[in-house]
Amino acid sequence: GQGMAAFxxxxxxxxxxxxxxxxxSRGGKLLVEAGPGTGKTFAYLVPALxxxxxxxxxxxxVSTRTKQLQEQVYEKDIPFLIPRIAPGVKAALLxxxxxxxxxxxxxxxxxxxxxxxxxxxxxxxxxFAGWLFRTETGDIEENRAFLSAPRGRELWPRLxxxxxxxxxxxxPFYDDCFSFAARRRARAxxxxxxxxxxxxxxxxxxxGILGPYDYLIVDEAHSLEGTAxxxxxxxxxAATLDRFLGEVHRRRGAVSYTHLRAHETP
Length: 266
Hints:
single chain; 266 residues
């Protein structure tokens, strides 16, 4: 077809697409094993988009193994297919909150860094500031200059959206929050592209992240078991505790391990 001059006839791909289409029509579950080079992404995306086109109001979630694959599906494959198959279908990309910048944290961190003695943080801060006023998504993966700066990844945990310090609707930046805006776009889309970690976080939250959907396509499902083990395992590390106590210290005054130990029950 148009834009497919290099189209290659792959019987396995056509058979998989037919099976996916039948599953959408009949319901139920389908497990497909497809080796490299079989074109499995198009084999599930094409029937998914056709079904969405013909059944308005339906929602389909596609989950990939990694964020890199997630971005490839959303930024390369879907923009190629939607205009050719289903121009009216809306697609959305949704990542975990740890990928989005927090405007409230930016307001807090900016004066801390400007008033502090650590001038090396000013370079990544400048990269972050310039990007923050341009970005529409707040997804830090857009800002490679910041992430590549010597102290950028060190500064990012202080600027990231985080559930434990989020005040939700009472936050003064709630209407402009990148994380909640991404969720709203996903709720309004027929096709939502997530990764396995976010998919399992949604299951743990009883659907509170993605909302109701009709069909789920799990790409590279063989990796789902390991991701599920990680998602439902609670870990507490010294680094996590240090970061949490640092937040408390900056907001509410001096808190130290010594102070905490002094109040431990024998």
